[in-house]
């Protein structure tokens, strides 16, 4: 938006200071006139015949008052200019930092010294915003690089299969088609996961009353064949836990958590427990599973995109794309909730989701 040039804040403050001093001086002269000079007799003998009359006092006082007013005006302009510059110096630093941020440099910080005041609060807030923005941009760049790499892999495999089939016409056509279908399904699943992650990050969805206990039962019913095939016991406990949000996204969140608990489990004889409860103003969902011990330093990375938890037990057919926990975390965040990961003492992981109650 193009705006017409105007007076700077420093010049406005300078004129304000000078104007204030001029008005104060004028008021002082008015007080002198009202309460002193007007009571002096205006005759040739003056007061009691010995004091000067009003005419002489006015003509003697007026030049000195004019000089004083001129001095006040000059002093107000010069002093106001210097004082305004000193007061606005922190704002100049904040403006310079904002220009650097606008040019793409997000690593700069103001780090203003001194006691806490309005400018210090503004600079600290701006530094915090830059820190969050830099972290978000870095995360987005890393996500874009990982996504392009993940999408390039199935495309490269498809091209290789097609090249091999073209060079070797005698190759089994059904085998090539089956492998192409598998690779294509993986690419479609990754694309859908990326779109879902983007949608949950934007928070653009309709909200309705959702009972997490019903969502947990639906997710468990969907994944029960997978759990039974791996020899894992899957149970849903607890009671009603109502919240407001997207039923579709919350179902995907719970499904991802349960699927993650099933896949990253013991080879056989493991358990997965899904518990829901209402805790005051919070609706609680907890998913716990058995499995190998998870190192605490690994926990912060598990909710990042394309982190597959290579330190944990998994099988190749359920390797996934590393977006399960990332999508769950994004959905929880879009619903103004929290997702906490904690290693279980006997091995495995405990995931706790807290959402605002409906």
Describe the structure.
The protein has 358 residues and is α+β, with helices and mostly antiparallel strands. It is built from eight helices and seven strands, in the order ααααβαββαββααββ. A five-stranded mixed beta sheet has the order 2-4-5-7-6, covered by helices on one side. Helix 4 (173-202) packs parallel to helix 8. The two termini are 42 Å apart. The relative contact order is 0.07.
Q: Mean pLDDT across all residues, rounded?
A: 81
Largest β-sheet summary = 5 strands, mixed
Query: How many β-strands, per DSSP?
Result: 7
Task: Report how far apart the termini are.
Answer: 42 Å
Numbering strands along the chain, what is their spatial order in the largest sheet? Answer: 2-4-5-7-6
What string, H for helix and E for strand, traces the elements in order?
Answer: HHHHEHEEHEEHHEE
Q: Any low-confidence stretches, pLDDT <50, length ≥5?
A: 310-319
Return Rg in Å.
37 Å
Structural class: alpha+beta
The count of helical stretches stands at: 8
Our estimate of the beta-strand percent is: 5-15%
Shape: elongated
Helix content: 55-70%
List the helices and strands and how they pair.
Layout: H1 9-35, H2 54-102, H3 118-167, H4 173-202, E1 208-211, H5 212-229, E2 233-238, E3 242-245, H6 247-263, E4 271-279, E5 282-289, H7 299-302, H8 324-334, E6 338-343, E7 349-356
Parallel strand pairs: 2-4
Antiparallel strand pairs: 1-3, 4-5, 5-7, 6-7
What labels would you give this structure?
13% strand, 358 residues, two-stranded antiparallel sheet, alpha+beta, single chain, 58% helix, five-stranded mixed sheet, elongated
């Amino acid at each position: 938006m193009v705006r017409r040039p105007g007076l700077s804040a420093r010049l406005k403050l300078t004129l304000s200071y000078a104007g204030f001093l001029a008005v104060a001086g004028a008021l002082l002269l008015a007080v002198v006139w009202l309460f002193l000079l007007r009571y002096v007799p205006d005759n040739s003998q003056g007061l009691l015949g010995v004091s000067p009359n009003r005419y002489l006092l006015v003509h003697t006082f007026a030049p000195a008052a004019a000089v004083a007013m001129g001095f006040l005006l000059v002093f107000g302009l010069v002093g106001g200019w210097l004082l305004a510059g000193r007061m606005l110096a922190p704002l100049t630093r904040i403006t310079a930092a904002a220009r650097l941020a606008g040019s793409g440099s997000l690593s700069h910080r103001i780090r203003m010294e001194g006691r806490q005041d309005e400018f210090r609060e503004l600079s600290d807030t701006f530094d915090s915003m830059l820190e969050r923005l830099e972290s978000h941009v870095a995360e987005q760049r890393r996500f874009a690089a990982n996504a392009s790499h993940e999408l390039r892999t199935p495309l490269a495999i498809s091209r290789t299969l097609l090249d091999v089939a073209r060079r070797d016409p005698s190759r089994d056509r059904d085998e090539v088609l089956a492998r192409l279908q598998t690779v294509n399904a993986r690419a479609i699943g990754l694309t859908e996961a990326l779109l879902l992650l983007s949608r949950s990050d934007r928070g653009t969805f309709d909200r309705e009353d959702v009972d997490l206990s019903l969502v947990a039962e639906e997710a468990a019913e969907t994944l029960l064949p997978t759990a039974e095939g791996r020899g894992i016991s899957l149970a849903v406990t607890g009671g009603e836990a109502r919240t407001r949000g997207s039923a579709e996204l919350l179902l995907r969140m719970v499904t991802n958590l349960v699927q993650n608990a099933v896949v990253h489990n013991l080879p056989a004889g493991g358990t997965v427990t899904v518990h829901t409860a209402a805790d005051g103003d919070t609706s609680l969902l907890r998913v716990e599973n058995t499995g190998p011990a998870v190192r605490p330093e690994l926990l912060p990375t598990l909710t990042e995109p394309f982190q597959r938890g290579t330190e944990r037990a998994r099988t190749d057919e359920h390797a996934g794309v590393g977006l399960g926990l990332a999508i769950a975390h994004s959905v929880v965040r879009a619903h103004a909730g929290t997702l906490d990961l904690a290693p279980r003492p006997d091995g495995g992981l405990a995931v706790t989701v807290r959402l605002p109650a409906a």
